[in-house]
Specification:
The protein has 28 helices and 33 strands. By secondary structure, it is of the alpha/beta class. Its cofactor is Zn(2+).
Length: 936
């Protein structure tokens, strides 16, 4: 009777499919997590342990998630899960920004589409519409975040629009009011004429814009420098509309200025032959070209310091602008562009304002909130500063005020919502002082005390704090937390009364911030203050103050959380956004930062490095990636990228991630198949294991150290690279390849097979834990293939404790030499296959030539087993001249030859012991007999 040897081979067997089917499988796993209450259990299982609290930076609740949201939330989840695996208690409370212009703008867009005017709607009704809009999108985004595999306390998120949150924001504002840090002042702020409100730096983006430029004349009327008598100072500006607000001209003390007489001009030049003009010497040629001046005669040259005390006339003197224009020294005046002179409009620029305040200049009010000039502005009343720039320049030209006019395409600030250009506009706003109570100094010290990842974030944030002006926290809008302040009509000073603030906060706690608009002032002022004596502020608070205060109403007073947070994590734009506002708010009220560490990630670009745009058709939507490939592919993309730089994504990159995923999944699948039927009774002690298994344990110990270090360093790019290389190179291409013969063909109780299965059980335990924070769905699926308890989740585990005794550097060095030898043998066998001299490596018996040092590494090791051949001969020496060699592995030569004997029908090795009538080798005969005995 012929034996069917195929049925006696122990082939891998598992229900873990090769095809992942993630788009279908992941929702099933999510449903099971919901069923067992995994989010809650992740918190509870580590009670009493050291805490790691990542405080969530709130996204706006105003639309579907984009790929940047996916990057941010996945990175946060990988960090939370890895810290949990490292044994710490994590409690992640997701949050949303619900106030502010992004949501209000959406409601206004609906109004405009219906032909309605927002101002005709009662403010409380309008605010309720904003609240309902935010509520709708919170539900949508919550479902989308959960689909990414993000674990968190989703049943109790924080929202800036909840009544307790609004109350606490009011209390935080009240602290600045009471300590004198909050004040009202008029100064230029970045203003949106479309949205009719001041904007914060983080609400601004830069786009190309074509500006009208002018070179304007400022005739000298008084000077101590004889060379300037009868001369005209020329300035250059890209904002002609700011000329009505001019009150000075700035120069640089060290700049060389030339006084020239125009001797020839081209046709259509606005310059006049015979006029004396003053310009920086280094910029004279450029100025002449733009003004179409063909020739000049230089009359004098002087340093900027020689201009001290000079007074000019406004270009429109005699037409309503009859004041003197002093010339003032300023560090920001350079000879890099323009004319070396800067026209100073204190109401339209930060530098201008500071110089004007230093010298007591008037700060005129010229531009209304809609971008039009006030009626009192001579010549320009009613004109729009953005739409009528050409007309403004023409009026200046017609009155002899300019020497040249042109156009310039340059980067210009725009609102990131309306996409409209912005202006600097002087307006009365509420500010938090950077110097009162030493806020700047406290914030700079807090930055020095904070860990930044990457470290460059510290320098960036420090530079912003060092040079920033006072914090403008007021907005002229409707949806947000009102600035809870009453102003004395008599003195103009804000009322500082803690009892009033407490009544306001209590009302907000019970009814929300709508109470400010729905209640009479007497409700808050109480019996101590006459409502007729006070004006109630109607501005709302900057949404960045809202989000900057989240630490106060999320982290404090929650026993599962802690203040300060262990980590804040957002994109690099948040150095001027949430990191910035949180730092200032906390330093101003608590004297330190609300975080111990700050992590910054880059932006997401398309696979060619371009910004994503619907018009370019290069947008990658996370929903589409999940529908086609699954969320684990997106998670793999996040960790395989270097988040400290801008990340790229697109169809080709996603397919590359799918290949990475397939290798990792196949590793888990192979382990599961090889461990079919494995029990603890099969475990072999380490001291009885072959060297190869002990080498794998050494590699596990090395990887364990790397995983833990990368977890602490938030370095998931290195962690992924190391794990992927371990699976693809050390395991699949080497260890599994070498050991498959033993796994399939050794008798079940052989120590070699038991050692391999013992090590593979350790590999499975470690890899599922190491991969769980990254491939959260796949690790769960793999783990539950072997662990089927009703609530046995991989995400409730810790990183396995790896014995220090597994490290063996000498053994690692030895097996590094063995793998070098194997590499050359593998190359030689591949050549033999290509030449069709062999079909499989088991047909071969190579002779391997090497030096004594390399061959010493093979001591105690079966070379045929390592090379996956039926035999091998090791020879000390250089080898024949025609032997196979690899340049990158010097000193090794291989001569290929066929193995002697016949092919074993069970293990396929070619051995002399397999003779006619004896179809299997001795080992296989023994294994078959053992299997037969076990079956009987």
């Amino acid at each position: 009777m012929t034996t069917d040897y195929k049925n006696t081979v122990f082939l891998p067997k598992t229900d873990f499919p090769m095809r992942a089917g993630l788009p279908q499988r992941e929702p099933e796993i999510l449903a099971w997590w919901q069923e067992i209450g995994l989010d809650r259990r992740i918190v509870d299982v580590r009670k009493g342990r050291e805490k790691f609290i990542l405080h969530d930076g709130p996204p706006y609740a105003n639309g579907h998630l984009h790929i940047g949201h996916a990057l941010n939330k996945i990175l946060k989840d990988v960090i939370n899960r890895s810290q949990h695996m490292a044994g710490k208690q994590t409690a992640y409370v997701p949050g949303w920004d619900c106030h502010g212009l992004p949501i209000e703008w959406k409601i206004e867009e609906d109004y405009r589409a219906r032909g309605q005017n927002k101002d005709d709607v009662p403010i409380v009704e309008f605010r309720q519409e904003c609240r309902a809009f935010a509520d709708k999108w919170i539900d949508v985004q919550r479902a989308e975040f959960k689909r990414l595999g993000v674990t968190g306390l989703w049943d109790r998120p924080y929202l800036t629009m909840t009544y307790p949150a609004e109350a606490q924001i009011a209390r935080e504002l009240g602290k600045f009011l009471m300590n004198g840090g909050l004040y009202k002042g008029a100064r230029p702020v970045m203003w949106s004429v479309v949205e009719k409100t001041a904007l914060a730096d983080a609400e601004i983006e830069y786009h190309d814009h074509v500006s009208t430029t002018i070179h304007a004349r400022f005739p000298v009327v008084r000077t101590a420098a004889p060379a300037l008598e009868g001369a005209t100072v020329v300035i250059w500006t890209t904002t002609p509309w700011t000329m009505p607000g001019n009150r000075a001209v700035a120069y640089g003390d060290e700049i060389d200025y030339a006084v020239v007489e125009v001797t020839a001009v081209a046709e259509n030049s606005l310059a006049k032959v015979g006029e004396k003009l003053v310009c920086a010497a280094a910029l004279l040629d450029d100025f002449k070209a733009q003004a179409k001046i063909e020739a000049v005669s230089e009359l004098a040259r002087l340093k900027g310091a020689g201009l001290a005390g000079t007074v000019c006339a406004h270009p429109l003197r005699g037409h309503g602008y009859d004041y003197d224009v002093p010339m003032l020294a300023a560090d920001f005046a350079t000879d890099e562009t323009g004319t070396g002179f800067v026209h100073i409009a204190p109401g339209h620029g930060a530098d201008d304002f500071e110089l004007g305040r230093e010298h007591g200049l008037e700060i005129p009010q010229t531009v209304a909130d809609d971008g039009s000039f006030y009626d009192h502005v001579p010549l320009f009343a009613g004109m729009n500063v953005l739409e009528d720039n050409m007309k403004i320049a023409a009026i200046l030209r017609d009155h002899g005020g300019i020497v040249a006019r042109g156009k310039l395409k340059h980067s210009y600030p725009h609102s990131w919502r309306s996409k409209a250009p912005l202006i600097f506009r002087n307006t009365a706003q509420w500010f938090i002082s950077m110097d009162t109570n030493d806020l700047r100094k406290t914030a700079l010290q807090a930055i020095d005390d904070t860990r930044f990842v990457p470290a460059s974030g510290q320098t960036r944030l420090r530079g912003m704090i060092e040079g920033r002006p006072d914090w403008c926290i007021s907005r002229q809008r409707a949806w947000g937390v009102p600035i809870p302040v009453f102003v004395s009509k008599k003195t103009g000073e804000p009322l500082r009364d803690q009892a009033v603030l407490d009544r306001i906060a209590d009302a907000f706690e019970e009814e929300g911030a709508d109470a400010w608009f729905a209640s009479p002032p007497s409700r808050f002022l109480g019996n101590d203050h006459n409502p007729d004596d006070f004006e109630q502020v109607q501005d709302i608070c900057d949404v960045w103050f809202d989000s900057g205060s989240t630490h106060a109403f999320v982290l404090e007073n929650d026993p599962e959380l802690q203040w300060p947070a262990s980590l804040y994590l957002e994109g690099s734009d948040q150095h001027r956004g949430w990191f910035h506002s949180s730092l200032l708010e906390s330093c101003g009220t608590r004297g330190r930062a609300p975080y111990d560490a700050v992590l910054t990630h880059g932006f997401v670009l398309d696979q060619d490095g371009r910004k994503m745009s619907k018009s370019l058709g290069n947008v990658t939507a996370p929903q589409e990636v999940m529908d086609q490939y699954g969320a684990d592919i997106l998670r793999l993309w996040v960790v395989s990228s270097d988040y400290s730089e801008d990340l790229r994504i697109g169809p080709d990159i996603i397919k590359h991630q799918v290949d990475h995923y397939r290798r990792l999944r196949n590793t888990l699948r192979y382990l599961l198949g090889a461990l079919d039927g494995y029990t603890d009774a099969e475990t072999l002690p380490v001291e009885r294991m072959p060297e190869l298994e002990r080498w794998v344990l050494h590699r596990i110990a090395e990887l364990d150290e790397i995983v833990r270090r990368c977890t602490d360093d938030f370095d998931f790019h290195t962690l992924f690279t190391q794990i992927h290389q371990f699976c693809a190179v050390d395991l699949s291409a080497f260890y599994f390849d070498v050991r498959k013969d033993s796994l399939y063909c050794d008798r079940p109780d052989s120590e070699r097979r038991r050692a391999a299965r013992t090590v593979m059980a350790q590999l499975f335990d470690c890899l599922t834990a190491w991969l769980a924070p990254i491939l959260c769905f796949t690790a769960e699926e793999a783990w539950r293939t072997r662990n089927t308890g009703p609530a046995d989740s991989v995400h409730l585990r810790e990183y396995p404790a790896v014995p220090a005794g597994w490290r063996d550097e000498a053994l690692a060095a030895k097996w590094a030499k063995i793998r070098q030898l194997r590499r050359v043998v593998t190359g030689a066998l591949e050549l033999e296959r290509a030449e069709k001299r062999i079909g499989a490596s088991l047909q071969a018996h190579p002779a391997v030539y090497a030096g004594a040092d390399l061959l010493a590494g093979m001591q105690g090791v079966d070379p045929a087993e390592v090379f996956i051949t039926s035999g091998a001969t090791l020879v000390e020496g250089d080898g024949p001249a025609d032997a196979y060699r690899l340049a990158e592995v010097p000193g090794v030569a291989v001569v290929s030859a066929l193995a002697d004997g016949a092919k074993c029908e069970r293990c396929w090795r070619v051995l002399p012991e397999v003779a006619v009538g004896e179809p299997v080798c001795d080992r296989c005969d023994d294994a078959v007999a053992a299997g037969r005995d076990a079956a009987e």
